[in-house]
C-alpha cells in the first residue's frame, strides 16, 4: 500500500471520528434528529437525516409529532450534510477551501463535488452550518468580482481572479485550495454557529 493511500485512509478515519461522529451525536442530542453515515456508499454526502429519536420527543415541553419535528429541521438545515473537520482553522483562523482534490487528475475539491444540502465545518470549539450551494456561489462571487472580501483573501490589490494564489495542502502537493478567514464565513455565509 502506498503511503499516500494509507494517509488517505487515515484521513478518512479521522474525518469520521472527529467530524461525522460528533455531528451525529450533536444532531441527536440537540434536535432529536437521527442521521446515518452514507459516505461509504459514495452518494455525494457524508450524513443523511434518517429519522427522529422518539426519546427526545418525550422530553419536549411542547407537544409535537416526529414528522413535524423532522420536517421543521429539514426546512431549516437540510437533509444531507458534508462534514469537514478543519484542524488548520483552529490554529490559524482560516478555512482551507479545497479547489482541487487532485490538480493533476483535474478532480474538483470535495465541497464542489458534494451533493449535500449543508456544509458543516467542525472546529475544536464550534460547529459552523452553511448552505452548501450558497457557500459555493459566495466564494465564486468574491473571487471573480473583486469584492472587498476577496481582496483580503488575496492579500494584494485586486486585479481579477488571476491574483488568487492557491496553496498546496500539507497532506499532498496535488491538493490545492485557498484560505478563507473563518470570521468572514461566520459573518457572511453561516446559517448557524453552535458552541461545543
Strand order of the largest sheet: 1-2-3-6-7-10
What low-confidence regions span 5 or more consecutive residues with pLDDT below 50?
A: none
User: How many helical stretches?
Assistant: 8
Q: Helix amount, in percent?
A: 40-55%
Query: Which overall shape is indicated by the principal axes computed on the Cα atoms?
Result: globular
- Count of domain modules: 1
Q: How much beta, percentage-wise?
A: 25-35%
**Strand count, sense and closure of the main sheet?**
6 strands, mixed
Mean pLDDT: 83
Account of the protein in words:
- The chain is an alpha+beta fold and 196 residues long.
- Helix content is 42%, strand content 27%.
- It is built from eight helices and ten strands.
- The strands form two sheets. Strands 1-2-3-6-7-10 form a six-stranded mixed β-sheet, with helices on both faces.
- A hairpin with a 4-residue loop joins β4 (94-102) and β5 (107-108).
- The longest helix has 29 residues, at 3-31.
- The chain is globular.
Write the layout of secondary structure elements.
Blueprint: H1 3-31, E1 33-37, E2 47-52, H2 54-58, H3 66-77, E3 80-85, H4 87-92, E4 94-102, E5 107-108, H5 110-113, E6 118-122, E7 126-131, H6 132-144, H7 148-154, E8 167-168, E9 176-181, H8 182-188, E10 190-195
Parallel strand pairs: 3-6
Antiparallel strand pairs: 1-2, 2-3, 4-5, 4-9, 6-7, 7-10, 8-9
Helix pairs in contact: 6-7
Amino acid at each position: 500500500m502506498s503511503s499516500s493511500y494509507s494517509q488517505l485512509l487515515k484521513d478518512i478515519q479521522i474525518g469520521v471520528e472527529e467530524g461525522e461522529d460528533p455531528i451525529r451525536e450533536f444532531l441527536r442530542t440537540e434536535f432529536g434528529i437521527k442521521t446515518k453515515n452514507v459516505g461509504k456508499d459514495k452518494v455525494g454526502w457524508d450524513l443523511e437525516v434518517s429519522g427522529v429519536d422518539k426519546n427526545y420527543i418525550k422530553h419536549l415541553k411542547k407537544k409535537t409529532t416526529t414528522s413535524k419535528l423532522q420536517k421543521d429541521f429539514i426546512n431549516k438545515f437540510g437533509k444531507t450534510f458534508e462534514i469537514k473537520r478543519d484542524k488548520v482553522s483552529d490554529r490559524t483562523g482560516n478555512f482551507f477551501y479545497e479547489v482541487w482534490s487532485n490538480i493533476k487528475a483535474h478532480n474538483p475539491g470535495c465541497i464542489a463535488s458534494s451533493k449535500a444540502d449543508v456544509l458543516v465545518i467542525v472546529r475544536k470549539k464550534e460547529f459552523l452550518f452553511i448552505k452548501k450551494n450558497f457557500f459555493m456561489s459566495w466564494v465564486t462571487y468574491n473571487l471573480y468580482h473583486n469584492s472587498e472580501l476577496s481582496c483580503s483573501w488575496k492579500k494584494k490589490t485586486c486585479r481579477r481572479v488571476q491574483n488568487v494564489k492557491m496553496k498546496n495542502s500539507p497532506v499532498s502537493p496535488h491538493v490545492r485550495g485557498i484560505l478563507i478567514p473563518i470570521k468572514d464565513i461566520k459573518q457572511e455565509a453561516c446559517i448557524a454557529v453552535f458552541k461545543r
